[in-house]
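Tokens for Glycosyl hydrolases family 43. Go.
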Amino acid sequence: MKQFTVIMYALLAYFSAGKVLAQNPVIKHIFTADPAPLVHDGIIYLYVGHDTAAVGVESYKMPDWHVLSSTDMVNWKDHGAKLSPDVFSWSSGGAFAAQCVFRNGKFYWYVSVNHKSNDVSKGGCAVGVAVSDSPVGNFKDALGKALITNEMTTDMKHSWDDLDPTVFIDDDGQAYLFWGNGSCKYARLKENMIELDGPINTFKPTDFTEAPWVYKRNGLYYLVYAANMPETIEYCTASSPTGPWTYRGVVQDTSVNSFTTHPGIIDYRGKSYFFYHNGVLPTGGGYRRSVCVDYLYYNPDGTIQKVVQTTKGVERIKE
Ligand code: FUB
């Protein structure tokens, strides 16, 4: 017994000295979900939702979004809760998935929240946009009303189908807003980033559930999204951001102890990274999730290799 205790303490010392890296989850001091990384001026900013449901409670309690930053992928500074649904006077709460992008010197943080409207058609989930001169705030409501409300999309009959915004800006400067639960929707954005510039289009990628993430690599457009339930991450590619999209397969199998997962993909200092969430922290679960990061690898033809989910995580990038 004594020998066992000694070994346990030795292991603990070894781990806490940082000699064995168990980086995942990368955020351990709070429960976080829906990672949206942004690389700006050589720094990774990580925008995340914040799970605060009590143990055993089977519903989301998400009061705000946090911003973290890192330059080595291992040490993350939490800048704090930099946005909450309270900023949007028209929202009744629910800090669901969100993504922040940079355009023309400003940071636009697209969020999904509940709409407080008494008009039943406007209730349910809505997309709003906050703006700031800095990646860590202060963010204020850019529009004073929702950018997308429930009655603007009618193909899905459930009230939470306008979730999970992601914004992609193409090389020609055209910005696109993608979002959706049950079906994927997209619309062009005006250069001001706070108005739609055309109709809302709806389509259904194979197995699509929610959480689109759109980007371009080597001339090919990628639409990565949460599929099925419990969720896997799957993807399509296209030669245009408006499709047609060709289904390419699975990026991530289901995540441990969470029925959802959520993709966020960046290239940083020569490597590709895949952010997602699981429920592996002590007392964690589907409503107490944790953000992780692992490497993403492409094949020579641009297809994505399935992500290996690890507890070790990624290596620290040396300065
Ligand atoms: O975090 C709340 C919801 O869970 C998100 O909007 C979905 O993408 C799923 O991760």
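The chain has one domain: 2-295.
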